[in-house]
Amino acid sequence: MNAGLRKVREDLRRRFDVYRAKRARSKINATVIGVTGSSGKSTVTELLGHILASHGSVHTQVLANTMNALVRMLYKRIKNTTELDYVIFEAGASGPGTLKPMADMLKPHVAIVTMVRLEHFSAFKTLENVAREKRALVDALEPGGFAILNADDPHVIGMASATAHRVVTFGVSEQADYRVTNVNAAYPDKLTLAIHWRGGVLELKTAFPAEHFWLPTAAAVCAALELGVPPEKVAARVTTFQPLANRCQVLVTEGGPQFIVDAAKSPWHSVDLAFDLMAKATTKPKRIVLGQISDYAGSTRKYRYAYRTAREIADQVIYVGDNAHRSGAGQEDRDSGRFHELRTPKEVSEHIKRTAVDGELILLKSSSRLHLERVALAWTHDVKCWVPVCGKREGCDTCGLYEVPFEEHRDHVRQRRHARRWRRFRRLLGA
Fold this sequence. Notes:
single chain, alpha/beta, UDP-N-acetylmuramoyl-L-alanine:D-glutamate ligase, Protein-Tyrosine Phosphatase, Chain A, 9-stranded mixed β-sheet, 6-stranded mixed β-sheet, ATP-binding, Mur-like_cat_sf, acid-amino acid ligase activity, nucleotide-binding, MurCDEF_CellWall_CoF430Synth
């Protein structure tokens, strides 16, 4: 088959898939909720799904947040739509014009916007462009729907003036409909907060290790309460929710370190949040491992700034990856062991294995490109996939092949797929 014909066939298949997705959406009677924002949207989506699961049947689509993922969710993954009470979709944007088609197809009854930051800098260039893209979800609301907006972010709350739909706000602002107070977290003490709303005051205890998680918590709680979930049920469900993998996930090892794994995303604004977690933690000693910083404007001098900040917080700072040489660490810090410059996650793992102190706190902070979560996984699993950059977007927990050498992944997946097909075939024969 020549390339031209293959392209035509692929285009026709995509069009047909989109048609089936739109048709599937028209049959959904459930309350459809869309979540977007520069950070926090995955946690909001998963936490809200966890809360609503105590109130009805829920389908949650998290992490896979592209147009293709939405299409697949609508026509493949949502079955028995009459039995669903809620559908929650996390909508991401990689550049101008990428979120609007998703919003128009999703047609949410509830649109949640967490924050606007300069993500995907090379594509968006300005905060205004990011805000314009995120607003598409609010613009696509169904009649009678409502938006839940961050009252503390001027680019988010600005969306309220551009919509005729009902707007509900959350934040620390005095004007917020759901006002957040008493935010406290100092690891190992987990996040607690209070939310003041028209129903009174809701005291919340969470499993999050850092204060900045108040924002996704408040957004999810606001949505759940607006959708009629009883406050006591909301509080109980928040208490039992565990942070998502690689998003400030806590991994405590027996006889070894405690890891804070924040290796899913690393836009510049999130680096200080992770450092703040470490600064407020009472566990000692502390180490910070910094890999790839992403989505920032300006020069690579940000690695120098990050080192100066990390040095004041941690007993040792480790830089890893292609930008490890940009720390600006002095020779004295290098000679004393205060700073280490390493090239690969495997080198980091080996170094920590040699020098680990029982109970110490180690932050693993990087974009997903380096998969620094392997450093923590190596304490409880036989990690054999140590390729510096594998090209996979999902975390190692989702991939599940970290105990298989990278060069064997393809054959391993093929064999596993063949085994599944053979099991299905045998079940059919038995039927």
